[in-house]
Specification:
The structure is a single chain. This protein has 171 residues and is an all-alpha fold. 70% of the residues lie in helices and 0% in strands. The chain contains six helices and no strands. The two termini are 44 Å apart.
């Protein structure tokens, strides 16, 4: 999880901050890298979910945090894909002569500004996911207070039921 957290931070740091930094080639590369990390993490989780009896509470807690991070990465992928869509629409419109464009809706600069905003949203999701993974590493999962410090005495034992009553009640 520490490795994944570092990779997410690296990708987040590379995302474009302004509309002039938006590049379709880099966006497609960032999407591919995040897809790779998401696939790798889901394969590792799948291995552990396949044998649930061998997964103990601390690891179950870690798998839950990994699933939450994977949700954030998938959301970031959605934002980057939308950003790529904006940039490619502008790319397409630049190549087709005579296409009617609205100066607000289909202007390549406006589309790049929208793409940069989408990248900013993706960056926020990735850094949040990375922080949650790192927090998971640095702090151990909370222990059950009930198991460590019982607050109530155990229930009193009952006398065994007579044989005819025990046969009727299959508990």
């Amino acid at each position: 999880m520490d490795y994944l957290a570092r990779r997410l931070n690296e990708v987040a740091a590379q995302l474009p901050a302004t509309h002039t930094d938006v590049d379709p080639v880099r966006l497609t590369d960032d999407i591919a890298v995040l897809s790779h990390h998401l696939t790798y993490a889901s394969e590792r989780a799948q291995e552990r979910f396949a044998a649930p009896e061998t997964v103990h509470l601390p690891e179950r807690h870690a798998l839950m945090r990994l699933a939450e991070a994977m949700t954030a990465v998938a959301g970031a992928l959605g934002h980057l894909t939308e950003a790529l869509d904006c940039v490619s629409t502008g790319f397409y419109r630049q190549a087709v002569p005579g296409v009617e464009t609205s100066h607000l809706r289909h202007d390549p600069k406006s589309l790049r500004i929208i793409a940069a905003e989408k990248c900013s949203e993706a960056r926020a999701q990735l850094t949040g996911a990375s922080a949650s993974l790192s927090a998971e590493i640095s702090t151990p999962p909370p222990r059950s207070r009930l198991a460590a410090h019982p607050t109530a005495p155990p229930p009193a034992r009952r006398a065994p039921l007579p044989a005819p009553m025990a046969a009727r009640n299959p508990r």
